[in-house]
Amino acid sequence: MVSYAQGIDALNQSLSELRDINVSFEFFPPKSEKMEQTLWKSVERLAPLKPSYMSVTYGANSGERDRTHDVVKRIHQQTGVDAVPHLTCVDATPDELRQIAQDYWNSGIRRIVALRGDLPPGTEKTDMYAADLVSLLKDVADFDISVAAYPEKHPEAPNAQFDLLNLKRKAEAGASEAITQFFFDTSMFLRFRDRAAAAGIDLDIVPGILPVTNYQTLVKFAGFTNVHVPAYLHRLFEGLDDDDQATRNLIGANIAMDMVKVLAKEGVKHFHFYTLNRSELSYAICHMLGVRG
Ligand SMILES: Cc1cc2nc3c(=O)[nH]c(=O)nc-3n(C[C@H](O)[C@H](O)[C@H](O)COP(=O)(O)OP(=O)(O)OC[C@H]3O[C@@H](n4cnc5c(N)ncnc54)[C@H](O)[C@@H]3O)c2cc1C
Questions:
Q1: Which InterPro entries match (predicted)?
Q2: By three-state DSSP, how is residue 246 classified?
Q3: Among 86, 129, 170, residue to substitute to test ligand 1 (most atoms within 8 Å of Cβ)
Q4: Staple partner for 75: which of 44, 83, 107, 255, CB 3.0–4.6 Å?
């Protein structure tokens, strides 16, 4: 019988043998001067790790689109790393989307994260889903396209199989990679990856890793994204709300490191980090995975 100690030793040993791990980092456009400084400090800290790309989220309305584009452009100019805009389709016409895509292509952007986006409050249906956006983008130019995947099912999907077939439609429309919603249960991610393979979904399924630095914010966010927060997480962060950030960071890093160790051992070669514009935890986890500057 393998003891826990032997199991942990084996996991750490296999980690030291890892090669060829790719990472990518996600940021959001800053909304204040202070947030702007935090973002660029983080971009500079993480760029030397030579990520596959850095992506920038996009919120509805055209002002936000411009800010996404500005951050994308500056990341690329300042660091040389491939910068990838997220694009949603709920708030734009197909003609507008074609124009945005053409502008992106003309300015040298070759990958896009294609999403439907969240429906505005009170809206129940939309004319366009992410799969339609993937087709539209592929009609404009030969972009590399990433899409979203939901190991725990998208909140609006009637069931998991329906959602999996939606992912298949996105692959068939021309996506090459799916980034998952964040999660904490690694076996659930692995089962999802198996189900996708069994359904013939030909996509790299990249786990989205959220290093938790604020438990209360996590709980709020997990509530509306249908992500299960295991009871042990609550127990680990209990009593630390008013403690210093460094203590919470250590707990958050420990949780994420345990997850990536298991996933790396299960053959995952690409990890996508939801950085929330901070670098400390993502940097430490990458270092542990052997991703060095
Ligand atoms: C990695 C990642 C990055 C993200 N970045 C952003 C961002 O930058 N900006 C932002 O606003 N949001 C972002 N989101 C959130 C995302 O926009 C929401 O989760 C949104 O509600 C769904 O987007 P989707 O691309 O997954 O949609 P879709 O794949 O279109 O699916 C949406 C829902 O509709 C269902 N569906 C699909 N096709 C049909 C159909 N024909 N008929 C009926 N139902 C259908 C699906 O099963 C699913 O329940 C991101 C999510 C992830 C995982």
A1: FAD-linked_oxidoreductase-like, Mehydrof_redctse-like, MTHF_reductase_bac
A2: helix
A3: 129
A4: 83
Give the closest residue to 141 by CA, choosing from 171, 173, 172, 104: 104
Partner residues linked to 145 by β-bridges: 112
Q: Is the CB of residue 277 less than 8 Å from the CB of residue 36?
A: no
pLDDT (tens digit, 9 = 90+) per residue, 1-25? 678 898 888 888 888 888 889 999 9
Give the domain 20-288 fold: TIM Barrel (3.20.20)
User: What is the DSSP secondary structure assignment for residue 120, as one 8-state letter?
Assistant: P
Q: Kindly report, residue by residue over 112-143, the tens digit of the pLDDT.
A: 999 999 887 777 778 899 999 999 999 999 99
Q: What residue type is assigned to position 8 of the chain?
A: I
Q: Is residue 204 helix, strand or coil?
A: strand
Domain ranges of the chain: 20-288
| Residues marked as catalytic | 26
Tokens of 50: 């030579």
- Counting from 1 in the atom list of ligand 1, the atom nearest the Cα of 208 is 1
Give distance in angstroms: CA of 278 to centre of ligand 1. Answer: 25
Cβ of residue 163 lying under 6 Å from some atom of ligand 1: yes
**CA 218 to CA 174: how far, in whole Å?**
32
How many contiguous H segments (helices) and E segments (strands) does the chain have? 11, 8
Residues 81/50, Cβ–Cβ less than 8 Å: yes
3-state secondary structure 136-183: HHHHHCCCEEEEEECCCCCCCCCCHHHHHHHHHHHHHCCCCEEEEEEC
